[in-house]
Amino acid sequence: MARRCTWALTGPEHFLIPDASEELAFVVLGAVRENEREGYAQRLQEFAEQYRGRLEEMLRGYGPGSAPAVHGRYFLVGQPEALPIIERMESAPFLLRSRWEKAGEDDVFLDDLEFAWGPRIRLSR
């Protein structure tokens, strides 16, 4: 679903390699509570529609081709996986951070995306 959302205005040449993409999707979906799983794809679509302007602004400021991205930062911005990650930042930030750390994913990727999105709760140290 995240790949189909139109907010991701970057081309597939910038997408993660499939194995990394699947790994991140597994981590993020682990942060979706059991009672939220039914209809989650619809929820992602609604989230993308509700925050379209903010997502596009984040993509312009931090996505592929931006000054911060040129310096090797904000790797997840513009990736389809960013959509469910951001949705979880808004809906279940502590659960997301817990699953992320448990999976051993690099904190800098999540920290950078969190900074670019600017959630109301900062989870980074």
Average pLDDT value?
82
Structural class: mainly alpha
Assembly context of the chains:
single chain
The gross shape turns out to be globular
The percent range for strand residues is under 5%
Overall radius of gyration: 13 Å
Which percent range fits the helix content?
55-70%
Task: Report what the structure shows.
This protein is an all-alpha fold. The chain has a domain of 67 residues. The chain is 56% helix and 0% strand. The chain is globular. The model has no long low-confidence stretch (mean pLDDT 82).
Outline of this structure?
By secondary structure, the protein is mainly alpha-helical. Helices cover 56% and strands 0% of the residues.
Q: What are the key terms here?
A:
125 residues, mainly alpha, 7 helices, 56% helix
Q: What is the element layout, followed by pairings?
A:
Elements (H helix, E strand, L loop, with lengths): L17 H12 L10 H11 L1 H11 L4 H4 L11 H10 L1 H11 L3 H11 L8
Helix pairs in contact: 5-6, 5-7
